[in-house]
UniProtKB/TrEMBL annotation:
GO BP term, example: DNA-templated transcription termination
Protein name, per record: Putative transcription regulator mTERF family
Molecular function GO terms recorded: nucleic acid binding
Keyword Heme: no
SMART domains (UniProt xref): Mterf
Family named by the database record: Belongs to the mTERF family.
Taxonomic lineage of the native organism: Eukaryota, Viridiplantae, Streptophyta, Embryophyta, Tracheophyta
Alphabetic keyword roster: Transcription, Transcription regulation, Transcription termination, Transit peptide
Pfam families noted in UniProt: mTERF (PF02536)
């Protein structure tokens, strides 16, 4: 039996019926209501007049549609309190005053409500810190990503991350450059980053550590599914003298889709190196390949 009915035993039926009517304010809410209530029956304990309706009115005006509110309701019902929603409203106003794109404001208010529901003073501090690092809400597509990272990273963790990257061969300027390019690389674990840097810099010797600061998105790619196969192909081509280091950009060869990479670095060289496709597919280890085809 759905947990909703067990919860009903401990509350006034009239309040439940009122909530049921409230949930049918729109087709979108109605379509979500049953699944939300079955998985989160505590919603039925909320007072419609003092909690749910005021939250709905605020969020509906901020998000602009019932369908966006429905998404918020489904994913973040626990934040449907007047205090949290009021914080969201104030923080949205801050971003609008700074000319942040409405599409990003709406996305983060709906999909990252914990960030947007921070106390206004703390939110202001985080915004100011992000802007001090050179991000501008009106022009930088990475501003909101940087705000998210700053809001979830305290000063000690920030210092710890910087120390880690210094051990990997970066300077403080390299670290800040990488953050400006893609703040989300900060969410990668040290183990994950260490394994990727070790493979790219030490085992493959394709770039220097500081080079990766210019394209940190590479560090967010899968080591097994993208970095190893592509770097291995390039390594073999270099060993065979079929390409030179100036013939490719490491960043570009990592962001190419599979077809473009194959067309550019595998298919043209298969007559000379038949094993290339197997290397790319991960069917042949680089160690065996180097033993067999090293010039």
């Amino acid at each position: 039996m759905c947990k909703v009915w067990r919860t009903l035993k401990f509350m006034e039926v009239r309040n439940a019926l009122t909530i049921g009517r409230w949930l049918k304010l729109s087709t979108e809410l109605k379509s979500y209501s049953y699944s939300v209530l079955c998985s989160n029956p505590s919603v039925l304990k909320r007072n419609v007049d003092r909690s749910l309706s005021p939250c709905y009115e605020i969020l509906r005006s901020l998000l602009g549609s019932d369908i966006k509110f429905a998404g918020f309701f489904k994913n973040s019902y626990q934040l449907l309190t007047v205090k949290s929603v009021s914080n969201i409203a104030r923080n949205v106003s801050v971003l609008r005053e700074l000319k942040a794109p409405e599409s990003l404001i709406s996305y983060y208010a709906t999909c990252q409500p914990l960030l947007m529901s921070l106390e206004n003073e703390k939110f202001h501090q985080n915004v100011n810190k992000v802007m001090s690092l050179g991000f501008r809400p009106s022009t930088s597509t990475t501003f909101m990503k940087a705000l998210f990272v700053i809001s979830t990273t305290d000063s000690s963790k920030w210092a710890q991350k910087m120390d880690f990257y210094k051990k990997c061969g970066w300077t403080e300027d390299d670290f800040l450059l990488a953050f400006s390019k893609n703040p989300l690389f900060m969410n990668m674990t040290e183990k994950n980053i260490s394994s990727k840097m070790d493979f790219i810099v030490n085992k493959m010797a394709l770039v220097q550590p500081a080079d990766l600061a210019h394209y940190p998105t590479v560090l967010t790619y899968s080591l097994e599914n993208r970095i190893i196969p592509r770097a291995s192909v390039i390594r073999v081509l270099l060993l065979k003298g079929l390409i030179a280091r100036g013939d490719f950009s490491f960043n570009s060869l990592m962001i190419y889709n599979n077809k473009k990479f194959l067309d550019k670095f595998v298919v043209p060289y298969q007559p000379q190196v038949p094993e290339l496709l197997s290397i790319f597919a991960g069917e042949m280890g680089l160690g065996l390949v180097e033993l067999g085809i090293r010039v």
